């Protein structure tokens, strides 16, 4: 694990600001404005507390292996039957719901935990994997609060989610990187620091999953996720594509990848913070001018110093660039930066605590087969380990995928600040590929659901960008019906059609 002491961290950040700032006083003002809250460990804890999550452990690094441990590179899973399930007319016994562990092939002692939910519609539906960001947050956040088959009721029972993505796909949720959720290791060297480690682990898991379930291996395959998964997803897609070209193991029928409110190209997205904040009335023109004069150029320089191989420089660039974000927050107060329409009440922007309570019930843990492994909803250890990866540009590998006919959908809720739609739109438009000019010049069209405009879409060839109305950072939570329709039409190749021309809505079937 790369360790950066706080004095060295701040010194590197100050050195970058010194190049751009005209005086030491300005440097001090800028660093003071960022505040101690910008330090990574505090940032990670704030992220977790804002979701009303209180994991007992920082990461799942256990003292020793479970007595039932199996280090063979083979999936060990069991049929999943949650207790307290309210069927609502659909029998879970008729569906293939599973949970299990995969001993990661290229690790010291890591095991990756996953859920699999067979499509409620047809086993031949696409296989869709979902990756939650953080970095270091469990995919169970999405499973129970966004697009999974179930919702958690107040009495800790489960109810069918009317707009679960399993209505149109076979769904995989993975706790990754190691240390997140129920995934664990007995060796701290298994904590990942970059996208090579992350994507190789996911690729090894996928190979094992399809070996265990060859009946799904020929289905179309799509990678999806949100937030920091804007890094994971392109790297994983490139790894799958590379494996297919090299004829490694089972061929994976990769058709596309979708990034929701993601961080993909920090060099462009961090510069867009002030533009978005000014457009949305969060800051004044004077604030905009000051941040753009000092902090934005410093961020640009820091990212250049990071490059692709930097360690200390990349970690320092995280601090330098996040002065932009923290400076905006210092001016807007207790706003919910995942959804600027809302306030954070008591520093808790959302209440996801029912998930932790549910997953710590003995009956649930027995159903999952996790033994005494802690559930780490969001890991500060994983968050900090990925700091050297944070400011790297993951857009660079996407053009090759587009040229080879693999579809990309970038979508973003319009009221998210932290991974806002404007920054995502800017990097998508700036990306150089053979269809760039045609994409930039393509018209914006209405994305309609139930005859109402649910978003604005741009599309050319393999590339689509969708700005989703009335949604924040977590689009499937805020606009579940629109998100389900988005997935259905995109995987069917009909996303660009109007609501009137699109196939019958799955939610109405």
Automatic annotation (TrEMBL):
Residues 1-25 form the signal peptide. One of its GO terms (biological process) is proteolysis. The keyword Repeat does not apply. InterPro entries: AB_hydrolase_fold (IPR029058), Peptidase_S10 (IPR001563), Ser_caboxypep_his_AS (IPR033124), Ser_caboxypep_ser_AS (IPR018202). GO terms for molecular function: serine-type carboxypeptidase activity. GO terms for cellular component: extracellular region; vacuole. Keywords: Carboxypeptidase, Disulfide bond, Glycoprotein, Hydrolase, Protease, Secreted, Signal. It is found in: Secreted. Its EC number is 3.4.16.-. Probable carboxypeptidase. Belongs to the peptidase S10 family. PANTHER family: SERINE CARBOXYPEPTIDASE-LIKE 49, SERINE PROTEASE FAMILY S10 SERINE CARBOXYPEPTIDASE. This is Carboxypeptidase. The gene is LOC107468003.
């Amino acid at each position: 694990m790369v360790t950066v002491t706080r004095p060295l961290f701040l010194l590197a950040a100050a050195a970058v600001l010194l190049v751009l700032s005209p005086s030491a006083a300005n440097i001090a003002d800028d660093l003071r404005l960022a505040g101690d809250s910008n330090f990574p460990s505090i940032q990670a804890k704030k992220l977790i507390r804002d979701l009303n999550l209180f994991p007992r452990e920082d990461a799942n690094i256990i003292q020793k292996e479970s007595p039932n441990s199996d280090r063979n590179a083979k999936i060990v899973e069991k049929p999943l039957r949650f207790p307290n399930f309210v069927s609502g007319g659909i029998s879970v016994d008729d569906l293939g719901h599973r949970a299990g562990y995969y001993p990661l092939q290229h690790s010291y002692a890591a095991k990756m935990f996953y859920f699999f939910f067979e499509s409620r519609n047809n086993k031949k539906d696409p296989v869709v994997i979902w990756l939650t960001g953080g970095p270091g947050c469990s995919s169970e956040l999405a499973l129970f609060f966004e697009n999974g088959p179930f919702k958690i009721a107040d009495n800790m029972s489960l109810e069918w989610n009317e707009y679960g993505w399993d209505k149109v796909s076979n769904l995989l949720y993975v706790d990754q990187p190691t240390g997140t959720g129920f995934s664990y290791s007995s060796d701290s060297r298994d904590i990942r620091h970059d996208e090579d480690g992350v994507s190789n682990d996911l690729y090894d898991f996928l190979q094992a999953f399809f070996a265990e379930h060859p009946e799904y291996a020929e289905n179309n395959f799509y990678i999806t996720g949100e937030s920091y998964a804007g890094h994971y997803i392109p790297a994983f897609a490139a790894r799958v594509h590379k494996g297919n070209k090299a004829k490694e193991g089972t061929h994976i029928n990769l058709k596309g990848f979708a990034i929701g409110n993601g961080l993909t190209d920090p060099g462009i997205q961090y510069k867009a913070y002030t533009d978005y904040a000014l457009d949305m009335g969060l800051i004044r023109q004077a604030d905009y001018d000051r941040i753009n004069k000092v902090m934005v150029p410093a961020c640009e320089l820091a990212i250049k110093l990071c490059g692709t191989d930097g360690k200390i420089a990349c970690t320092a660039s995280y601090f330098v660039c996040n002065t932009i974000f923290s400076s905006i927050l210092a001016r807007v107060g207790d706003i919910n930066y995942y959804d600027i329409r809302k306030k954070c009440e008591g520093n808790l922007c959302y209440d996801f605590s029912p998930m932790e309570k549910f997953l710590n019930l003995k009956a649930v843990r027995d159903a999952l087969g996790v033994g005494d492994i802690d559930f780490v909803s969001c890991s500060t250890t994983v968050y900090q380990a990925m700091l050297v990866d944070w400011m790297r540009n993951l857009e660079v590998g996407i053009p090759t995928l587009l040229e080879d006919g693999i579809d990309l959908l970038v979508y973003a809720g319009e009221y998210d600040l932290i991974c806002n739609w404007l920054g995502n739109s800017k990097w998508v438009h700036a990306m150089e590929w053979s269809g760039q000019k045609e994409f930039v010049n393509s018209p914006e069209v209405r994305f309609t659901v139930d005859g109402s405009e649910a978003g604005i879409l741009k599309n050319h060839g393999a590339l689509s960008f969708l700005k989703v109305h009335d949604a924040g950072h977590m689009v499937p939570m805020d606009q579940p019906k629109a998100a389900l329709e988005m997935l259905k039409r995109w995987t069917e190749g009909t996303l660009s059609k109007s609501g009137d021309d699109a196939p019958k809505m799955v939610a109405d079937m």
